[in-house]
Amino acid sequence: MNSSADESDSGAPLPDFRTQGLQLQTIAPALGVINQKASPDYLDYDVKGRGIFSTMFANSGMAYLLGISAGGIYGFRQGLAATPSTRFRVQVNSVLNHCGRYGSRAGNALGVFAVLYSFYEGVSDRYEPEELLGLTRQYPSLAAFISPVFGATMASATYYAPSGIRVAALAGGLGAASVAVTYGGYKMLGIPYGKLGFLFL
């Protein structure tokens, strides 16, 4: 009885290898089939670098991290110096209070400045004022310097705008001067400007 059952059983069904409904273009180029009609798919790429929003997020995150680190170290020192008692619990409380106070202030300030700077630099890159001023042909080395100067000037002026026009103008001048000093220092040292990819550094 077992032998007759084995003879009648043909085993598992064979898979269907018919390819009438298969479009090889959807599987290509794994099979070496190239669809000449369809345009190639490329990732979006900005020749000038990252987009304005990704730059904004990266700069603000790094600036906030640097701010809370520097402010936290300063707050640690101030907390130890301002401790009213020698008891360990009181010292820890004083250090934590000062670290939180100075760290959050510095982190928030630098983070906001980074967002403003990235926005204004992105706007300048978008409209290319160096092309309008003719600097690209006459002074090509200064062409990459325009957007960081504009970004730092406008970011500083915007940040201090609530304090008045004079303070905002002074802050804008200091922002432009800081970019100019950084640019000059990089040129003297022979380092490509913007090598770090963070703000105007």
TrEMBL record:
Major place of residence: membrane
Topology with respect to the bilayer? Multi-pass membrane protein
Segments crossing the lipid bilayer = 167-186
Q: Which Gene Ontology cellular-component terms appear in the entry?
A: TIM23 mitochondrial import inner membrane translocase complex
Alphabetic keyword roster: Membrane, Transmembrane, Transmembrane helix
| Keyword Transmembrane helix on entry | yes
A Gene Ontology molecular function term for this protein is: protein transmembrane transporter activity
Organism's domain of life? Answer: Eukaryota
- GO terms for biological process? protein import into mitochondrial matrix
Enumerate the subcellular locations listed in this protein's record, separating them with semicolons. Membrane
> InterPro entries, per this entry?
Tim23-like
Name of the featured protein: Uncharacterized protein
Q: Which organism is it from?
A: Fistulifera solaris
